[in-house]
Each structure stands twice: as C-alpha cells, then as structure tokens.
Design brief:
Elements (H helix, E strand, L loop, with lengths): L8 E4 L2 E4 L3 E2 L15 H13 L4 E3 L8 H10 L7 E6 L1 E3 L5 E3 L3 H15 L4 E7 L13 H12 L3 E7 L3 H7 L5 E5 L10 H10 L2 E2 L14 H10 L3 H12 L12 H8 L8 H15 L1
C-alpha cells in the first residue's frame, strides 16, 4: 500500500486518484521554456514519483514547449494502468517565451494532436481548456467556441474528459451546457483565496479542484506566520502550505511540481503531516491580513 493513500482519493473524471499528485511544469527550462539543465534528473524525478505511488500527473505541451511531455514519455512510457495524465490547451509559446492565446479550431486541434504525439497516447484522460482572457487570473468571457471544438474532439475519441483552467464559476456553469466539466484548475494557496466559495460549491457537486501555484508559483509564499507554524509542527513552510491545502477541502487535488528528487520527497512527506486546529486558525489569518 502506497504511503500516499493517507491523503485519500477523489474522483477525476471516472478515475479515483490520490489527492497528492505531481505537476510537470518545472521539468522545463527557466521560465518554463526550453530544455532543463539536467534532463537525467527530470527523468529520475518522474520515475521516483511513480514508484512512490503518484497516480496523477499534470502537464501541458506548451511547457517548453513540448519539453515536459517528451520527458514524461521518455521516463514513464509505457504508462502504468493506474496513471492519469492531465494536460492543458488554449495557449502557445512565442519565440520570446511569451504566453499567447490559441483558441481557434485549428490551434486547439493541433494542440490535442501534439499532446497525443509527445506523450505517446491514443487518448488523453483529461484536457483542461486554459482561459486566456487575462493571463493573471480568471476574467469573464465566452468559452463557447473553444469548448465546442474540444467537445467535438471528445466525441472523436481523442479526449476522454474535459476540465477548465483560470475560470470563473459562471464559465464553469456555461461550459456544462456543452460538455461535462470534471475539474477546475485555478490559482489558489494560503495567500490567494479568491476561490474559497467556489471550491465549496464544486465539492458539493463532486467536482475536483486542482490549485495551481499551491506554493506561490513565481512568487513563493513568504510569511512569518507560515514560518512560525512550520517551526511548531516540525516541518518546512512549504510542507505546511501543502498540508493546509489537503485539509482545506476533500475535493482539492494537489499537483506540486519540482525538478529535484530531494524536493519531491519533501512534498510526498506531506501526507504524514496533520495540522492541529490552532495552526489552521493561524494560517487562515494570512489571507485576511493580506486583504486588510
């Protein structure tokens, strides 16, 4: 039995996955662009994650671009039957490493075929459509056209399930008129809690919520309160931030990423960390203090 089973499971599409998974974004080079400095270490990180029970990997062909998917294929193909690979479409990378919207039928279709080829798959378990109305956070706008394209690719058998990323509750509700939405992937962490009510509503519906930047992303979480709690419970601040997310709601699936096996082990050890009520109370105050 994997130690990760301590974190419990939640349904992603029609598969029950452990609540602590792995995000592949950091396997690419600096700025999520180009190859990694140490490809052998990237391969080793993936293999160790799977050996330790990880059954949910989040990726995208616009990481690199193409780099992370090719490394995943090199490291893990042929894939274990219990492994769920989730990818994202809706953006492309410019030659200057910029992130550019790619919502046309042609771009979305090409993105699906690129993901399939680079991952070595015949069908993708879950594809998240990444809204790009505002690259810094969710913004209202119609996703009807790109979601209709994705739903058609789903009917063709290239995509099994559809999720949404960087979206509002209204966009999810509208999206469900086109196809079933099995997960939402938005920015959420100790200091960025705009989705509190959204998470609770999704939990009631049985929909997975997958926070990206659970540790702050390009601006790592820094808080004296977080450091104080970490010292009290004998863990690192980032371990505490992940443990808080696991205890926040049962529908949260974590995908912390790293290009280091040492950091991977620290992340996986979070399943053994149970935060007491006073620690949760102190951590909850971080967002309130930021908003004040």
């Amino acid at each position: 039995m994997s130690n990760l089973e301590k974190s419990g499971t939640f349904t992603l599409g029609d598969r029950a996955v452990k609540r602590l998974g792995y995000g592949a974004m950091q396997l690419a080079g600096k700025g999520v662009f180009g190859p990694p400095k140490n490809r052998a270490e990237a391969v080793a990180v993936l293999r160790e994650a799977i050996e330790n029970g990880v059954d949910h990997i989040d990726t995208s062909d616009f990481y690199g671009p193409h780099v992370t998917n090719q490394i995943i294929r090199e490291a893990l193909h042929p894939y274990r039957d219990d492994l769920v690979i989730v990818t994202k479409i809706g953006a492309t990378r410019g030659a200057d490493a910029s992130w550019n919207p790619a919502f046309s039928k042609e771009a979305l279709t090409q993105a699906i075929h690129d993901n399939l080829k680079n991952l070595g798959l015949d069908v993708i378990e879950v594809v998240n459509l990444r809204a790009m109305f505002d690259v810094h956070g969710p913004a209202e706008g119609s996703l009807e056209e790109p979601l209709t394209v994705l739903a058609d690719l789903q009917r063709q058998g290239l995509v099994k399930h559809v999720g949404l990323s960087n979206v509002t509750a209204r966009q999810v509700a509208d999206g469900r008129k086109i196809t079933d939405i099995v997960c939402v992937q938005n920015q959420y962490n100790l200091a960025h809690r705009d989705d509190d009510a959204f998470i609770e509503a999704l939990a009631v519906e049985g929909t997975a919520y997958v926070p990206f930047f659970p540790l702050g992303g390009f601006s790592p979480l820094q808080s004296s309160t977080l450091s104080d709690v970490a010292a009290r419970v004998g863990a690192t601040p980032l371990q505490v931030a992940l443990a808080w997310l696991l205890q926040r709601s049962p529908n949260i699936l974590l995908i912390p990423g790293t290009s280091s096996r040492a950091h991977l082990r620290e992340n996986l050890a979070v399943v053994d960390l149970v935060l007491p009520a006073d620690a949760i109370r102190d951590l909850d105050a971080i967002a309130a203090a930021k908003a004040a």
